[in-house]
Structures are given as C-alpha cells and as structure tokens.
C-alpha cells in the first residue's frame, strides 16, 4: 500500500492566522446539509448540536472542530493544500452561524417553530451557497465591517525604494507578500519568468511598511520606476 505525502505551506493547527480555503467550504457544506435536514425533518436538536460544535471549535481551536479534522486529516492529504487565505473572515462567518443556529434552537424549544425554521433555513441556504459557489456572506460582512473601521487600501502613487533597501537602475515590481500566501508565490514566479525585476516585501516582517502604503491584502504589486513613482498596478 502506498502512502500519500505532501508538503503543507501552513500548519493547520499552528498557523491559525491563515487557513486552506477549502477547509471553510468543507465546514460550510456540513453545516448547510445538517441545518437543511433539521429544518425539513423538524429535528431541531441537530441545529443545537451544530451550534455547539461551531462554538467549541471557535473557543478551543481546530483540533476540537470535527469538520476541520475531517478536512485536514482525511481530505487535504489526498487533494493537497489549497489556496491559503486570511482565517478571520471565515471565523467571523462561523460566529454569525453560531448566533443564528442558537437563536433557531431556542425558537424551536420555545414553540416558535416558524421562527426556528426561518432562522435555520437562512443558515442552511447561506452555508450551502458558500460551499458550492465560494460566496461567503459572513466573510463579506467581516470585510465590510473592516472598511467601516477604516481598514482600507489606498492608492500607491510612489514607493520609497531607499527605505526598502533597494537600489535599482530600471523598473522594478514591488510586491507585498506573506510567506503563507499561495497567490504571492505564484505571482512572483510568473513575474520572474517574464524577466521582470521583483522586490518582495514580507508584510509579516514589515508591518510598518504595509501600514504606510495601505496594504490590506496580499499580493499587492506595483510597477515602480527608478525614481520611486508608481507607473502601473499589477495586482
């Protein structure tokens, strides 16, 4: 019997600031299916069980999250690691799910069956939507709230190359990256294959630079002339 080995970019239980993008979709699929079964059959205890499991995972970590264990221990080793993304939006989506599922369970328990069905149905619909299309409404709520808090990107008009420790004679692509960002590595490889000079800035090591230039998402890449003026935005 042959064993399947693969290399992880991010340890699922240690690098909790990021997550394999397929993991939340696996969780959403399970939450969506169980919530739909509960609403269709009236087994509202399923809603309470799903809410409890989500709450345990949020409180104690991924090792106590059954859908997480299913993905990271059984599915990921066979499919390989998917794109790495910020774990905060899906975490917030799970918090919203816990709120709605708890409210639905309480409504059922109090005899307000219609209210429980509506709340449970909302969770089922949104979770299945996210699992099948990748459109996570809870994640978008998190990003919208971040913009309201003033966490937003800015247009980069110029880059201080000297501050970044670069001395260039021609154009250079300044790419803001993170060591656990799959898209960052792919973009840098593509740019270098095209023969472009690339200056990679690790935002985990230079958060001051990220704040200065309003970098809220990676990869962010701009084409910069030797005078530091940004000539075009690449990513």
Number of strand segments? 6
Let me know the average pLDDT.
87
**End-to-end span in angstroms?**
44 Å
Q: How many whole angstroms does the radius of gyration measure?
A: 22 Å
Largest sheet: 4 strands, mixed
How do the strands line up in the largest sheet? 4-3-5-6
Order of helices and strands: EHHHEHHHEHEHEE
Q: What portion of residues is helical?
A: 40-55%
Can you tell me the number of structural domains? 2
Low-confidence stretches: none
The shape is: elongated
Broad structural category: alpha+beta
Strand content: 5-15%
Provide a count of the helices: 8
Overall description:
The strands form two sheets. A four-stranded mixed sheet has the order 4-3-5-6, covered by helices on one side. A two-stranded antiparallel sheet has the order 1-2. With 235 residues, the chain is of the alpha+beta class. The radius of gyration is 22 Å and the shape is elongated. The mean pLDDT is 87. It folds into two domains: 18-148, no CATH class; 172-233, Glutaredoxin, CATH 3.40.30.10. The chain is built from eight helices and six strands.
Task: Describe the structure in brief.
This protein is of the alpha+beta class and 235 residues long.
Write the layout of secondary structure elements.
Layout: E1 18-20, H1 22-41, H2 45-60, H3 66-79, E2 84-86, H4 88-109, H5 113-133, H6 137-148, E3 172-177, H7 182-193, E4 198-202, H8 207-212, E5 220-224, E6 230-233
Parallel strand pairs: 3-4
Antiparallel strand pairs: 1-2, 3-5, 5-6
Helix pairs in contact: 1-2, 1-3, 1-5, 2-4, 4-5, 4-6
């Amino acid at each position: 019997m042959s064993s399947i080995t693969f290399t992880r970019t991010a340890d699922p239980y240690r690098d909790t600031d990021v997550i394999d993008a397929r993991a939340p979709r696996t969780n959403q699929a399970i939450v969506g299916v169980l919530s739909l079964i509960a609403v269709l059959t009236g087994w509202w205890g399923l809603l309470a069980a799903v809410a409890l499991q989500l709450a345990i995972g949020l409180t104690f970590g991924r090792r106590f999250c059954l859908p997480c264990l299913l993905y990271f221990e059984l599915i990921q080793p066979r499919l390989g690691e998917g794109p790495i993304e910020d774990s905060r939006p899906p975490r917030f989506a799970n918090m919203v799910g816990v709120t709605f599922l708890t409210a639905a369970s309480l409504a059922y328990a109090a005899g307000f069956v219609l209210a429980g069905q509506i709340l449970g149905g909302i969770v089922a619909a949104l979770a299945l939507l996210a699992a099948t299309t990748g459109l996570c409404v809870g994640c978008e709520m998190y990003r919208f709230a971040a913009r309201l808090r003033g966490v937003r990107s800015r247009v980069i008009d110029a880059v201080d190359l000297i501050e970044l420790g670069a001395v260039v004679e021609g154009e250079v692509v300044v790419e803001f990256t993170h060591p656990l960002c799959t898209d960052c590595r792919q973009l840098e490889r593509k740019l270098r294959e095209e023969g472009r000079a690339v200056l990679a800035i690790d935002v985990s090591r230079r958060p001051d630079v990220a704040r200065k230039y309003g970098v809220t998402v990676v990869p962010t890449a701009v084409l910069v002339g030797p005078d530091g003026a940004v000539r075009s935005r690449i990513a």
